[in-house]
Amino acid sequence: MRALTIIAALIFSLAVQAQTETSIFKVDANGLIETNPSMIEPFYDMPEIKNLSYTLNSPISVSMGTQNYDIKTGCLEQWDDSEYTFNVITIYSNSQKIFELRQPDNWRYTYGLSKRSYQQYTNNQYFIPITLSEQAVALAFIGWPYGGEMPYLTIIALTNNDAKLVFNKHMGINAITQSDNSYSMELQANIVEYGEDGKPFNTPDNVPIIHHIEVKNGLLYFK
Q1: Calpha distance 167→157 (Å, rounded)
Q2: Could you identify which of 3, 43, 147, 166 might form a hypothetical disulfide with 25, taking C-beta atoms 3.0 to 4.6 angstroms apart as the criterion?
C-alpha cells in the first residue's frame, strides 16, 4: 500500500510539472518567431530618444545556418553610462538594422564587473549565447541589480529569418547546466534576506522562488 501511495505521488508530481511547463516562443515553417506575451514583462515608460552613442566598437557576430547577425550594444547619450553597462541592444543582418531594444535602466556585463561571473558560459561580456538548433539561437542579457527586486533577464531569439524579444522578467540566474544534449538555467524570482550570521531569515516568505528555463526540441521552455 505504501509503495502504491509513493508511486501515485510521483505520478501526480510529474503531471503537475508537465502542466506548468510553458513554451516561451514558437517558430513557424518560415522561421518567423511567435512570442508568448506572458513571458515578456514590459519595461517602464521609455522616452523616445533618437541619438545613440555606442560603447562597443566591434560588434559580436552570431551565425546559424546561412545567416550571420551582428549584435551591437550601446548607451543612450542622455543616460549616465558605465564602463560595464549598456541600455541599447541593436542587431544587424547584412549591415541592415533589423531589431533594436532599449530600456531605461541597464544591462550589465556577463563578467568582469562583480563576483557573479558567467564567463564559463559565454565568449563575450555582453550576452550568454544559447544554442537551440542549427537554425536558431537565443541570447540572454543580464539586467543591472537594483535594491528590492531581482534584475531583468532578457532573452532575444534569432532564426534564419527573424529576431524577437521572447523573454523579459525579473529573474536572477543561480546556475547553468549544459552538456552536448541538454541546457538548463536555474532562475530565482525573489530576493532572500540574510542575517549577520549568513543564514536566511526564517520567515514564510523569505524562501527562494525557483524556476527553470530548458532547451527542448530547438525551443525554450519555462517552468
Answers
A1: 9
A2: 166
Q: Is 201 helix (H, G, I), strand (E, B) or coil?
A: coil
Q: 0.70 exceeded by the pTM?
A: yes
- 205 contact partners, CB below 8 Å, separation of at least 6: none
Terminal Cα distance for the chain, rounded: 32
In whole angstroms, give the CA distance from residue 213 to residue 112: 25
| Phi, psi for residue 26 in degrees, rounded to 5 | -130, 160
CA–CA dist 209, 191 (Å, integer): 9
Question: Distance between CA 63 and CA 159 in Å, rounded?
Answer: 10
Long-range pairs, 199-202, Cβ under 8 A, ≥24: none
Measuring CA to CA, which residue among 101, 68, 64 is closest to residue 86? 101
CA–CA distance, 125 with 85 (Å, rounded to integer): 10
Report CA 67 to chain centroid distance, whole Å. Answer: 22
* 185 phi, psi to nearest 5 deg: -110, 130
